[in-house]
Amino acid sequence: MMTNRLQALINLGHKLSHYKDKSFLDKLPDDLFFEKGHQIIEMAKHYNPWFLEEQVIFALQSWANALTAENLTKWINENGMNEPDQPKKVGLILAGNLPMVGFHDIISVFISGHIAQIKLSSQDKHLMPWLIDFIVSENSAFQSQFTYVERLTDFDAVIATGSNNSAHYFDFYFSKVPNIIRRNRHSVAILTGDESQEELALLGQDIFQYFGLGCRNVTKLYVPENYTFDHFFEAIAPYDELMVYEKYASNYHYNKAVFLMSQDKFLDNGFLTLKEDDHLTSPISTLFYTNYNNIGDLSRTLELNKDQIQCVVSKINLPHMIPFGQTQKPNLWDYADDINTLAFLNNL
After folding, report:
1. Assigned domain for 330 exists
2. Residues with Cβ < 8 Å from 346, sequence gap 6 or more?
3. Of 210, 190, 229, which Cα lies nearest the Cα of 313?
4. Predicted local confidence at residue 22, as pLDDT
5. Residue 329 CB neighbour total at 10 angstroms
6. Could you say which DSSP state residue 322 is in?
7. What is the rounded CA–CA span in Å between residue 64 and residue 16?
């Protein structure tokens, strides 16, 4: 069965590879999967205005790149997966801040041979059932591995994603079963002042993809003393198109007004505000920044805050650094909160 499940995910990846960009929506094969997909993408945007077509297609293409035979085989082999003697019911409480953000948990439970009890987010309740329907269409026996629930009541383990506040509830309610409880995380970038315009433009992707709503989006910059942001603003100038989207523009105008009324010092390029602040997370359309004196001290600061940080982006050659432009293109083995989901499921 493991081989069959693997092949189903490979086939799904091949299907999704047809989603190149928005222009390809009218060039897709004449196929029920794509016909339904077109309707689902429209429906997703209706229920969640942040889920623009280009954002959803970016997510679909990211999954196409992840679900290749090579990547899936590496992912499984690294974890030494075993077929469970008795499949466990694994409750999944999924987030909905990004398109299909919980799909990794779903395929992790699926490939491990367990049963996914899926509590979809109200913000993303159409896209993932569409993909699951394709998996089930590959083999009707897979149907028993997926159930949708409004509330988890009968489960052997839980993977729950939410805010720091909801995590307190999850910790209490699911304490008697094996669990993974995910909290708020944020991503940061370290600049040296020697970045090229191309590198800074790629950093723009890390900041603005999905409007900055994900834990892998950069919300905080660390810059050297006396750093000037002229080249940074020049490199990200093409993202001024974000202001045509009402929800993003509303956040920009609101946050700018708050800074002005509070008489805070900030920089502004017409679609992004930059404010010096020690916090790791910033509001949508705002980046916080902090000056540093030397990389050694900064590295120790990041280590102390590692439980709050998802990604660190930089050209500096330090362990676990991610290159510019890669935060929203994780591999299957780039686990949320750095917790190996497959190893957790394999040990149930």
Report:
1. no
2. 79, 80, 81, 82, 112
3. 190
4. 60
5. 17
6. B
7. 5
Tokens found for residue 83: 């077929």
DSSP tag of 320: T
Question: Looking up tokens 């999954």, which residue turns up?
Answer: 63
- Asked if residue 217 and residue 99 are part of one domain, the reply reads no
CA dist., res. 274 & res. 236, Å (int)? 13
Residue for token pair 């909801």: 166
Query: Could you tell me the pTM of the whole model?
Result: 0.94
**SS3 annotation, 49-79:** CCCCHHHHHHHHHHHHHHCCHHHHHHHHHHH
What is the amino acid identity at position 251? N
User: Which residues constitute the domain of residue 173?
Assistant: 2-183
What tens digit of pLDDT does each residue of 121-131 get?
999 999 999 99
Instruction: Please indicate, yes or no, whether residues 291 and 210 belong to a single structural domain of this protein.
Output: yes
Are 212 and 274 part of one and the same domain?
yes
Separation between Cα atoms, residue 284 and residue 318, nearest integer Å: 28
Q: What is the pLDDT of residues 96-111, one digit of tens each?
A: 999 999 999 999 999 9
Based on the fold, state whether residues 263 and 218 are members of the same structural domain.
Answer: yes
Ranges of residues in the chain with a pLDDT under 70 are 21-27
Q: How far apart are CA 145 and CA 108, in angstroms?
A: 12
* Domain count along the chain: 2
Q: How far apart are CA 51 and CA 251, in angstroms?
A: 16
C-alpha dihedral over 215, 218, 221, 227, to 10 degrees? 180
CB burial readout 66-104, b (16+ within 10 A) else e: bbbeebbeebbeebebeeeeebbbbbbbbbbbbbbbbbb
- Helical residues (DSSP H) of the chain, grouped into ranges: 2-16, 32-47, 53-66, 69-79, 103-112, 127-138, 164-173, 197-208, 230-235, 246-261, 295-304, 341-346
Neighbours of 334 (CB within 10 A): 16
Q: Which residues pair with 91 in a beta bridge?
A: 117, 158
Do the beta carbons of residue 217 and residue 328 sit within 8 Å? yes
